[in-house]
From TrEMBL:
Provenance organism: Coprinopsis marcescibilis
Cellular localisation: Membrane
Lipid bilayer topology: Single-pass membrane protein
Keyword list, A-Z: Glycoprotein, Glycosyltransferase, Membrane, Transferase, Transmembrane, Transmembrane helix
GO MF annotation terms: protein O-acetylglucosaminyltransferase activity
Domain Glycosyltransferase 61 catalytic per the UniProt entry, residue ranges: 181-417
GO CC field: endoplasmic reticulum; membrane
GO BP of this protein: protein O-linked glycosylation via mannose
InterPro entries, A to Z: Glyco_transf_61_cat, Glycosyltransferase_61
Superkingdom to which the source organism belongs: Eukaryota
Protein name (record): Glycosyltransferase 61 catalytic domain-containing protein
Predominant place of localization: membrane
């Protein structure tokens, strides 16, 4: 091989490469219409996923543009909407769940830039992210949040801030209560979504491209979840549901933890959250409703939310796991199936808190009789032995859910709303708590607390007074007089529509 060839060969390849590049460029330019068409059609398919499309200019840029910066003098606001049919404006804020637009963060401290005074005080917006324990002062300080007049913004925050686009959900708590299926899904996520979904009202006087009023389905999903006080897996539950279900409900949406916060602090710059919700358990208990229901989401009940506001999450959870979203008709039957209404008894007989064994057997016997009468199909899943997908598939088709107070009843988050849907929560008498009642009210299911032979239930707007824990609340000899449950299920599944207890 001579020197001549050695120098010629790379040149030859370079020549071929360059020609190919010119041909490709020419093709692209002369077929740009087709290329644009292809890109557009792809993009409109993506639109169906409704995850990243933002109305009213809020959100992710579709095309790449130069990074934008925000002036730090732009004022922070709490969004509010006009409730339909009234003159009432409702702010997307309650203790423990606060939506703030243009919320600034620098070196781990939030800043509300405002020249007015219409904000709730700091101790109603945020708290220290320490564990809730006796004697620990959780009231917020200048480290957590400061109010800043726009005239001082430049001096404290610098002239510009990096924009964090979209809707950021900031769960400003340690892992203490998060790592529990009920606390995560039944309080934090549902409370977040209840407050956020109130913003759908703001769209009712607008119309979308087809002229139809916007609905909860058009609310963009969060862009990210931020858990600044949580290290790695501290937010995950033992049963292993929190994590996978978050990926199913919010596919492609990151869940960032303490290291993210630390990264931002190290940059020594200011960021501006386009829209953020700050969630905090300590503050949620400052709401007067918390003294009635003793639940983190109690205060969120004070906001008027659109009917069926949970549906987008339920749909997303089911589409991305089971692959479909069963709907139940007024008779309690899954539409487009030949099945009877499904009654699911979640047995906890393998767990700590459980029924007297004979009472469990009697309950199973009476529920099986309902099946023999042709009123329903009975499912008695051992949830802990099923895959997540199998668990969700059962919840998704259930019209009536029966079980001892406990995590299994959180599966009602998957149950379709319907006239006849109901949850029977068996408690050791004379106990009463609001955990699953609160969920049932939000989901549109009738709730019955079962104290042995007594059903305790309340119409809309009325509530049990106080909580009660019997000594045997967590015990393994919880009594239940099965006929009261079986009889009420029979009534709910057979009575004419107008008679079904609401
Ligand atoms: C950032 O916050 C840390 C911890 O609160 C503090 O020690 C440090 O001085 C702050 N840095 C700047 C530049 O303000
Ligand atoms: C919220 O609380 C206020 C003040 O207690 C009360 O007047 C109002 O009716 C409540 N709204 C809802 C929707 O619960
Ligand atoms: C439960 O109810 C049944 C039927 O009324 C009754 O016979 C039984 O004594 C009750 N058990 C308890 C522990 O209250």
């Amino acid at each position: 091989m001579g020197p001549f060839r050695r120098t010629q060969k790379p040149l030859l390849f370079l020549g071929i490469g360059a020609s190919l590049f010119i041909v490709a460029l020419w093709t692209l330019i002369h077929n740009s219409e087709q290329v644009t068409y292809f890109v557009d059609s792809y993009r409109s398919k993506m639109h169906l996923s409704q995850q990243q499309e933002f109305k009213s200019g809020l959100g992710v840029e579709e095309k790449w543009t130069a990074p934008r910066l925000a002036s730090t003098t732009e004022e922070t606001t709490i969004p509010s909407v006009k409730l339909p049919g009234t003159d009432t404006r409702q702010s997307a804020w309650v203790d423990g769940f606060a939506i703030l637009d243009k919320l600034y963060l620098r070196n781990g401290t939030f800043y509300i830039v405002t020249s007015g005074s219409e904000f709730p005080s700091r101790d109603h917006l945020i708290a220290k992210w320490l564990k809730m324990e006796k004697g620990v002062d959780l009231e917020a300080t200048d480290k957590e949040l400061q109010f800043l007049h726009p005239s001082r913004a430049k001096e404290v925050l610098g002239e510009y801030a990096t924009i964090i686009p979209g809707f950021s959900v900031v769960i400003y708590d340690p892992g203490q209560f998060m790592h529990h299926f009920y606390h995560w899904w039944g309080e934090i996520i549902i409370g977040m979504w209840r407050v956020y979904s109130t913003l759908a009202y703001g769209s009712f006087d607008e119309t979308d491209a087809d002229g139809a009023p916007l609905s909860v389905d058009s609310l963009p999903f969060p862009s990210r979840f931020l858990l600044p006080a949580v290290e790695s897996g501290e937010w995950r539950d033992k049963a292993g549901l929190n994590g996978p279900l978050m990926r199913a409900a919010f596919p492609g949406i990151p869940i960032e933890k303490a290291d993210y916060w630390a990264d931002l602090a190290k940059l020594d710059t200011t960021v501006s959250f386009e829209r953020a919700m700050v969630i905090n358990r300590h503050n949620s208990h400052k709401h007067r409703n918390s003294g009635i229901w003793f639940k983190m989401m109690a205060g969120t009940m004070n906001l008027t939310a659109p009917d069926g506001y949970w549906e987008p999450i339920r749909k997303s959870l089911l589409v991305n796991t089971v692959g479909s979203v069963p709907v139940v008709d007024s008779q309690g039957r899954v539409v487009d199936s030949d099945e009877k209404p499904i009654v699911t008894y979640i047995s906890r007989q393998g767990a700590g808190r459980r029924l007297i064994h004979e009472h469990h057997l009697e309950l199973v016997k009476l529920l099986k009789e309902l099946e023999k009468e042709g009123l329903c199909r009975l499912e008695i899943p051992m949830m802990e032995r099923l895959s997540i997908k199998e668990q969700l598939a059962i919840g998704a088709k259930t019209t009536i859910l029966v079980g001892v107070h406990g995590n299994g009843l959180t599966h009602q988050l998957l149950m379709p709303r319907s006239l006849r849907s109901a949850v029977f929560e068996i408690l050791d008498p004379p106990s009463y708590t609001f955990d699953y009642e609160m969920l049932a009210r939000n989901m549109g299911h009738k709730h019955y607390a079962v104290n042995n032979d007594t059903l305790i239930t309340f119409p809309k707007g009325e509530y049990h007074k106080g909580v009660r824990f019997s000594p045997g609340f967590h015990g393994n000899t919880i009594p239940v007089y099965a006929p009261v449950i079986a009889d009420m299920i029979r009534r709910r599944l057979t009575e004419p529509d107008d008679f079904v207890e609401d």
